[in-house]
Structures are given as structure tokens and as C-alpha cells.
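#struct-help
A.M.: can someone run this one for me? Single chain, 124 residues.
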Amino acid sequence: MSKKKTAVLILILFVLALFETGYAEEKFGIQVYPGAAQDAETTKFIQDSLKIKGTAYRTNENPAKVIDFYKIQKDLRVISISTKQESAMFKKGDKINVTIQNPFTDMKTGKKINDTLISIASEE
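D.P.: on it. C-alpha cells below:
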């Protein structure tokens, strides 16, 4: 692949990454954990099966580190944090929820996934 094509591909991937992260920030006013990638299957489940406006993200980062990231976010308040810091729930206002889970269950297969799942959803 030529240097020019490689540079264009890198630029496209960078823009897509910004768009993906920006979606949650723009729509819900919540920062997405740096490096987390949108989980298309879980997002589809949240939106189609649960009928909730939301997006799910995954990272292989330790859940305690992800929880610490959300603890310091402006306008988020802690609702609950598990004693082992494997899960947590935060709320912004009365309608926006952020949940963190590790491990989590794949809703389609029932398989236990050892990544950290971040869900950002609106009750509206």
C-alpha cells in the first residue's frame, strides 16, 4: 500500500473514532472512556430489544479504572459501586444512566465476556 493510501486510511480511521466517541458526548453529554470501542451487538440489543436510546462500548481496561474515570465526570453522581469494583451505575440528571460491568453476559449467546462493558443510555 502506498504512503498516500496509508495516510488517507489513518485519517479516515481517526475521524471514525472521533465520530464514534462524539456520538455519546454530543447526544448525552457524557464522555466515553478513552479507547473504548462501540459494541454494535449490545447497542442493537439495547435499542431494539429493550427499546432504550443508548449505546454500549467495550474496553479491556480494568473495571476499577473505568469506574474511577466516571467518578470524576462533571454532572455524574454515583448510584452504586460493587464492593469488588466490578460494576457501577452513575446518573446524570434524572434521565441519563451510565453502567459499567465486568464481566458481562452476551445477550445473544449467553456467553460470559471478560471485557468491561460501558452502557450510556437515556430514559427518554
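A.M.: thanks! Confidence is low (pLDDT under 50) at residues 11-25.
D.P.: also worth noting: The two ends are 47 Å apart (CA to CA).
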